[in-house]
Amino acid sequence: MFQRQGPAAYKADLKGTFDVLEKLGRPDLKLSNVIHVAGTNGKGSVCTAVAESLHHQGKRVGLFTSPHLLDYRERMRVDGAVPSEEWVANFVGAHRHVFDGPEGQPSFFEWTFGMAMCWFVESEVDAVVLETGMGGRLDSTNVFRAPLLTVITNVGLDHEQFLGSDIRSIAREKAGIIKDGIPVVMGRMRPEAQSVVLAAASRMGAETHYAAVSQSLNTEVDGPHWPENRATAHKALEVLASLQFGKDLVVPSIESLSKDLHWGRWQWLKPMGCAGRVLVDCAHNVDGLDRTLAALAALTFTRWHVVTGAVADKDLTGLLTRLPKEANYYFCAADIPRALPAQQLVDMAGKYGLHGAAYTSVRDAYTVACKSASKGELVLVLGSIFVAAEVLASEAKSS
After folding, report:
1. Is residue 149 classed as helix, strand or coil in its secondary structure?
2. Are residues 238 and 323 located together in one domain of the fold?
3. Residue 261 lies in a domain
4. Are residues 205 and 57 in the same domain?
5. What pLDDT is stored for residue 12 in this prediction?
6. Is residue 240 part of a domain?
7. What is the pLDDT of residue 2?
């Protein structure tokens, strides 16, 4: 599992991906009409919005996203449906021996990507919407030489140890998905990132389209990210409609694109026995966290109860320097090998003026936070996708 390997699974080329695809019969060569999306934040929501719109207009669409929250199969959907557990088990059983050679095992992501492409071929999809896992240039998804469209949502600081320590370096990695003569949609991004992406598009002769700046009339409902993501998805659909593939497409109004697309992004819960409001947000990099906290600051909560955990291989300085010191903290560790022990997180957070107790599980931390919150107060779950996933799984079981 990549969750077990963590950064050690990273590879500085696509050889491993092509090796997997070759051994699986090159399913990528049997797929056409690919929409490829990269970016620091929002790419999963944009992918899902585009896929949903195409599906509702009669296209059979394969959607590849990551990470998953509740079920591994969330990563590969066809018209919203995941493959059966039996199909996944049979696929692994049938192909596992192929990868037991001396050259080493493929990473979890390479395995998953190859499996998804086979599932899409078997499902005879009309189009594939791909979310990059990390970066773009060297991401496993970057094997299609002539996609229909590429999209770059935004560029922020994340995965600096692999993508570069500054915005321009990271933008160059994201822009690696741009292809010769293929149109590219650009979401809202910093000027220094935009200049890098535009230069790459110019070199490749890729026609550039800009997403509109979209505003929310209700921050509490839409959150800080969805208006931008919605505008980017809408522009992508407009460009697709102008291509031969989309000659029968009707571009939906921007307001009609549903925000209920991606679990764990500005998701309000209604747990039993909690007097306060509960928000789950997967913000785990500086850009995403800043916007989430700014949006919450505009809402009137008398006190925050923050349930948070982290993985051991991530720099937590950005998180810990931004969280409010006056909040109550419930530190925990997700049930994965990469999790940072809760007590270590308590010790680190204390150096930044953040105080709270360590809990033996995410469920315990969340339960205590909910019981402690009074009317008018906020229970905020953030810091790690794995922590958010356990809270959502707990709520799903209780409902």
Report:
1. strand
2. no
3. no
4. yes
5. 67
6. yes
7. 38
Based on the domain organization, do 233 and 318 belong to the same domain? no
Query: Residue 391 in 3-state DSSP?
Result: helix
Q: What is the SS3 assignment for 226?
A: helix
Contacts of 320 (CB under 8 A, 6+ apart): 348, 349, 351, 352, 354
Total Cβ atoms within 10 A of residue 176: 18
Which two structure tokens, joined as six digits, stand for 159? Answer: 């995965």
Residue 66 phi/psi, 5° resolution?
A: -160, 155
| Residue entry with tokens 């207009």 | 57
* Within a domain: 18: yes
Q: Identify the domain containing residue 32 by its residue range.
A: 2-256
Residues found in the chain: 399
**Distance from the first to the final alpha carbon of the chain:** 29
* Residues 393 and 285 occupy one common structural domain: yes
CA distance 142 to 338: 27
pLDDT tens over the chain, length 399 residues? 334 455 555 566 788 899 999 999 999 999 999 999 998 888 888 999 999 999 999 999 999 998 888 899 999 999 999 999 999 999 999 998 877 766 667 888 998 999 999 999 999 999 999 999 878 888 899 999 999 999 999 886 665 555 656 888 889 989 999 999 999 999 988 889 899 999 999 999 999 999 987 777 677 888 888 888 899 999 999 999 999 998 889 998 887 776 665 577 889 998 888 999 999 998 777 888 888 999 998 899 999 999 999 988 788 888 899 999 999 999 999 998 889 999 999 999 999 999 999 999 999 999 999 999 999 999 999 988 889 999 998 887 776
Looking at the structure, do residues 244 and 293 belong to the same domain, yes or no? no
Residue that is last in its domain, among 224, 256, 288: 256
Is residue 335 included in any domain, yes or no? yes
Based on the fold, state whether residues 306 and 192 are members of the same structural domain. no
- Residues 87, 176, single domain; the answer is yes
Number of structural domains found in the chain: 2
Using CB atoms within 10 Å of the CB of residue 102, give its burial: 0 to 12 exposed, 13 to 18 middle, 19+ buried.
exposed
pLDDT of residue 399: 61
Strands 208-210 and 267-269: unpaired
d(CA 123, CA 222): 33
Instruction: Output the six-digit token pair for 363.
Output: 């469920």
What's the CATH number where 303 sits? 3.90.190.20
Cα(7)–Cα(188) distance, rounded to whole angstroms?
Answer: 29
Picking from 256, 285, 301, the residue at the C-terminal end of a domain is: 256
Distance separating alpha carbons of residues 227 and 230, to the nearest angstrom? 5
- Name the 3-class secondary structure at 214: coil
